[in-house]
Amino acid sequence: MCSTLISSVPRILDGIAIAAQIKSELVERVNSARTRGHVPGLAVILVGEAPASQIYVRSKVKTCGELGIYSELHTPPATATTDELLELVASLNARDEIDGILIQLPLPKHVDTTRLLEAIAPQKDVDGFHPINAGRLLNGSPVEKVLAPCTPAGIMEVLHRSDIAVRGKRAVVIGRSNIVGKPLAVMLVNASATVTVCHSQTKDLEAITREADILIAAIGRPGFVTPEMVRSGATVIDVGINRIVTAEDLERFFPGDEARHASFAKRGSTLVGDVHPAAFAVSAAYTPVPGGVGALTIAMLMANTVKAAELRRG
Ligand code: GUN
After folding, report:
1. Are 225 and 278 in contact (CB under 8 A)?
2. Structural domain of residue 99, as residue ranges?
3. Candidates 45, 101, 133, 179: which one to mutate for ligand 1, based on the most atoms within 8 Å of Cβ?
4. Is 196 among the domain residues?
5. How many domains does the chain have?
6. Of 5, 87, 240, 254, which residue is most buried, by most CB within 10 angstroms?
7. pLDDT tens, position by position, 210-252
8. How far, in Å, CA of 69 to CA of 193, rounded?
9. How far is ligand 1, taken at its centre, from the CA of residue 8, in Å?
10. Residues 201 and 253 in one domain
């Protein structure tokens, strides 16, 4: 008798395809808003000229154009004061054609980030960082009614649209930032998962992560999650986007991966997430880097802009 060895290949959760689906649904909502006499509008504020922020912001503005959303980019110099920036936010709050205001982070050190984020009218806070929106999320407001932070909202979309059950599952979030880890933990609890948040001070991390049905890495450390930390058959969501530039790191993360080696040779760098690529093999499904969660963040910003326009106009 011959026995067959079945090896299961993990499913790749294609963030680019899911983002494209979300964006095509948004086009319909934008068109329908236009027929009601209003084009949703987003104002983006980029303070200074940090190259990484410039790339993100350009991409946000370009995506607005693709979906038919009005956008305007404000680029105060890095020397702008908190008061000057507060004035800009106040003027955008007052303009009816602006539905969403996004201040690209991080801001220069001398700027009071908290004061500025709290100055955005909560109904225009498309980043979902204002305490009113964070509080509404915490209180379990229905998702259609709350402006929630874009990256965690995108992760919830990936799980939902990939038919990965959340209710009653054990979710472990590595990272406790206000932008990703904390709001994501709240969203997972609201979706009836049992959630543990781990961070740099967590003891015996591996024992906790190995219990996860859904493991989310959002800690900003290249290849931090190793195969031993992943339970066989778990879903792994990799939020990290880390650029590696040394041949040593290339070999550490991508040994024998000819395609990566070729692209590294051409560009002098490549991206790795917070999950070591070898750890994906243990999972049942995972989001790749690039092409995973990153693609969702801008799609969800667009979704929040359209939602803000719809909510504000009843
Ligand atoms: N910088 C990095 N991520 C984000 C984000 O989600 N929103 C804003 N405004 N800035 C960021």
Report:
1. no
2. 38-123
3. 179
4. yes
5. 2
6. 240
7. 999 999 999 999 999 999 999 999 999 999 999 999 999 999 9
8. 35
9. 36
10. yes
